[in-house]
Amino acid sequence: MPAYIIRRLLLLPITLFCIIFVNFVIINLAPGDPVTVTEISPEGFATRKETNSVASGNNDRYLQFREYYGLTLPILFNTWPWTDISYVKRTLSQIISKKENPEDKEEIPFKKWTEIRTDFGDRSRYIMPLLLSIINDDRESLGMKSMAINFFIRGGTRQAILGPDLSPEEKAFNNKISVENNTLKTFTIDSSDTQEEANKKIVSLNQWYSANQNFYTFSPDTHEKIMIFFTNSRFFRYFGKILTLDFGTLRNDNNKTVISEVSSRFKYSLTLSLIPMIVTFFLCTGIGLIMAIKQNKWEDRLLNLVCLILYAIPVFVVAPFLIEKVALNGYFPFTNIPIPLFGFTSAEAKYNNMTSYQRLFDVIQHVFLPMIAILYGGLAAQARLSRTAILEVMHQDYVRTAKAKGLSNSVILFKHVGRNAAITIITSIAGSLGVILGGSLIVETLFEIDGFGKFFYDSIINRDYNVIMFSALAGSFITLVGYLVADIIYTILDPRVTLD
Hints:
Elements: H1 2-29, E1 37-40, E2 46-49, H2 52-56, H3 60-68, H4 85-97, H5 110-123, H6 128-135, H7 142-156, H8 168-185, H9 195-216, H10 222-231, H11 234-243, H12 258-264, H13 266-293, H14 298-312, H15 315-327, H16 348-351, H17 356-394, H18 397-404, H19 409-430, H20 441-446, H21 452-461, H22 465-493
Antiparallel strand pairs: 1-2
Helix pairs in contact: 1-22, 4-7, 6-7, 13-14, 13-17, 13-19, 14-17, 15-17, 17-19, 18-19, 19-22
């Protein structure tokens, strides 16, 4: 067993890497990016729109946001340092004329033109020598030179290092780029500039380039290009943070880390996911045992029918029913305690003044109905699975042998049938451990519980990549660990099972 566990633990990081890789690529290839604004219409439809500042690609806050999240880099590999001059000239011509080719009559759709401009702006940092050659080429028009200078400024602009505890080197870097960024803006050629004024700005631009090309590595050699190819990408930057257990911050608030937000919802996750899972295991085993013992009798048919009906009723029907018909103006059976409608606890002011036992009782009252809404569907499905597993075990030779030896029915059911049938149930439950970090979106929304389900749904709507990736990573990790634990439990339930 130790050798098997070691092998599984060694495979765990490899499996997680593949999961991270696949999810990261899919998320980054999805249309749009986090700067798009999500709006919910009165009818409940989610729509996205881009503001003018986003579309133009020149807004400083927009660029800072994209660079902070690595959105200005290629997804996997950075081939931009190998860009050729013909591509640069063709793209600049498309941006100026807004046409695919100069001889075309129709203009490029605005959305596609914006994508070309944004992509070229991201690329400009790696093609500074090519832009400079166009700027210094006397054969090029002033319009072409002016557009090349705009992207030259874009490529030379750097974003400050953010954070409360910056080192002296980081502070010095921020001071330098602040000066350099302001200097770069002075090179812009305005429509009112004369040819002589434009030439002076070009001369100053060349001087700035000569003074800073080594500091910014504008002309990397072959070895540096190879390093850029692998390291200057979104995936490399993100995976480097993952290795240091840095899962990033929220899209809407850089002061809130993903880990802190997930941790604050952990109690909701455990209560609404783990406890129903444990309860389901024991209840479905008992119900499945009754159905198997009473196979094809009225008890079996009745429980089968109930399970089918419960499984067929969706949670978005049951949850509102519980709220309107049970909780609204309702009381717990045989008491005068009203059933809470919403929340995980009472109001904070009231909850903070309670004793430990009162708080526990308060939580039980509030999660009573959400638990029912979460439990019933899984219980119905697992009960039928348990019935099938128990019936299969009951027809095994060793069960008939136990009966022939004169063992009591209770010993046969619990020692031989129950333990072996539990293997199938444990396998099913182990695969669902990942839902601990998924929560129940519908239940949490209807009962106004700020759990993982609602949190992760909001992150998808807001295109919060850090939260989405963490949910996929954490859910996968818990599921893999669940399967490993299930394998170990197999050896405890059935001595015939070995992991060697």
